[in-house]
Amino acid sequence: MLYKTIADWLDQASDALAEAGIDSARLDARLLAEHVLRRSREWLLARPEYRPSNAQLAAMNRLLRARIKRVPLAYLTGHKQFWNLDLTVSPRVLIPRPESEAMVRLALSADLPAAGTVIDVGTGSGCLAVAVCVSRPDLRIWACDISPAALKTARQNATKHAADIRFCQSDLLRNAKLPDKADLIMANLPYLAKGTEPARRQYQPELAYEPATALYARQNGLADIFRLLPQAARRLKPGGWLLLEAEPKQMPAIIKKAESLNLRASSQEGWALGLRLTTP
């Protein structure tokens, strides 16, 4: 490919990405260029005649080749927008999804007391904990994950957004350092059924690059959620909330299991489910 201007590069990069089956080809090309050039969308649009240096072209083409192989855009740029926050991401963590913002909305709509205690289980990038913290800085928020690498990224995002969050490594709620009781527990755990990886990657190849342990679980995707339910029921205060993300078709099974633990379905938005601990 021969490029004279950034407009030339954007046109040819967009064509190459579209040929690779990427629906957002033009947007992805522009975001890669913005990342390498460290310029805004407005700057690029106003300067179609700009001539990138050889080093800039080499960097853009390297990222373009990776994106053509369906490496997620967020891993190439190292950033993802979530709840109007610019979050750092890497292959160590699941990329925050827009549908997960429903978890934040449910958390903020819960009648949590001032200085209430919140635990984010399986925090990953820390997107849920950080989003809730910047919206409700009065809350005492803990975030845990079994992965030390994920916790490193979550801490970076908390620092980046001045979010006062306490972190610890934990398999679900097993770490004794976590608070004995909480007003709200939220968890975006793996919920895709283990064994469906090849089929899912056929129509969404980017999944192959994300950590499988953050995506897939046994028992039709419900193993980790089912392990969490009794732990959460013991740790919640009366009237406390448990927020979970899952596919809507999985929610009847989750609700049935939760009811045996006095956790009643109280709210739902998209893929976010709110359960509340009731008195037996």
TrEMBL record:
Domain of life: Bacteria
BP-aspect Gene Ontology terms: methylation
Molecular functions (GO terms): peptide chain release factor N(5)-glutamine methyltransferase activity
Catalytic function, reaction form: L-glutaminyl-[peptide chain release factor] + S-adenosyl-L-methionine = N(5)-methyl-L-glutaminyl-[peptide chain release factor] + S-adenosyl-L-homocysteine + H(+)
Protein keywords: Methyltransferase, S-adenosyl-L-methionine, Transferase
CDD domains cross-referenced by the UniProt entry: AdoMet_MTases
Domain Release factor glutamine methyltransferase N-terminal: 8-78
Keyword Methyltransferase among record annotations: yes
E.C. no: 2.1.1.297
Enzyme class: transferase
InterPro entries: HemK-like, N5-glutamine_MTase, PrmC_N, RF_methyltr_PrmC, SAM-dependent_MTases_sf, Small_mtfrase_dom
Methyltransferase small domain location: 114-194
NCBIfam families, sorted: hemK_fam (TIGR00536), RF_mod_PrmC (TIGR03534)
Protein name, as recorded: peptide chain release factor N(5)-glutamine methyltransferase
